[in-house]
């Protein structure tokens, strides 16, 4: 997945730290000290957010001569991009590696947009103080234990939310057919949010959308980026994480609020989605 990292390793960059953070997200901290070298990225297949921690003052992208890096400057590199860089002097930087679906799946909930519409902008040396602060925080956090990585995962998702809002752009090849009308998509999104504690069925959603179950299932996937059952499961897991972080509710109470049959069912589903038990997740967040 992290082919940008492979390119850097082959260019004799020093990998100081690397970790898989869960949800197929990965983070790395790199260092380079070199007189001058050319580095090229060709369709890496995954998105990369780069944040300079130190140095980079003489590094420039070849198609943007005269624009140089500096601490807290950011680069957004889409999975299908190509770029060539002149690297000079000292650089210390953090990378967050993620898949296109990580970036776009939050579009419905956070931007009222379809995931298939959006992609990551190709941006070089943009500035965003809040995002840079989060990146520096992620780079400074420990990643060694499972608890460390859970906390780092939360920071990474916060970065992706900000990145979507500031650097999400419409795809040039975005499909225009096959999905739900915007008003129907919003109605379904809001219905699921309001009834997430209940046993929402495909029949319920088809009634809300005034579509047959067959057509709803196909059109829902096109507009939400996943089938209805997967969307509902993800929203329940997100709500459960929020409640575990911000309340002292028991597992039984959270199960009731998030649509799980009982605490045992909640624990099983939460572990499958997050990788740890609800209790372990709550303890990890409390220690952060």
TrEMBL record:
SMART domains: HTH_ARAC (SM00342). The keyword Transmembrane helix does not apply. SUPFAM superfamilies: Homeodomain-like. This is AraC family transcriptional regulator. InterPro entries: AraC_XylS_family_regulators, Homeodomain-like_sf, HTH_AraC. Residues 186-284 form the HTH araC/xylS-type domain. The keyword DNA-binding applies. Keywords: DNA-binding, Transcription, Transcription regulation. It comes from Trinickia dinghuensis. GO terms for molecular function: DNA-binding transcription factor activity; sequence-specific DNA binding. Transmembrane segments: none annotated. The lineage of its organism: Bacteria, Pseudomonadati, Pseudomonadota, Betaproteobacteria, Burkholderiales.
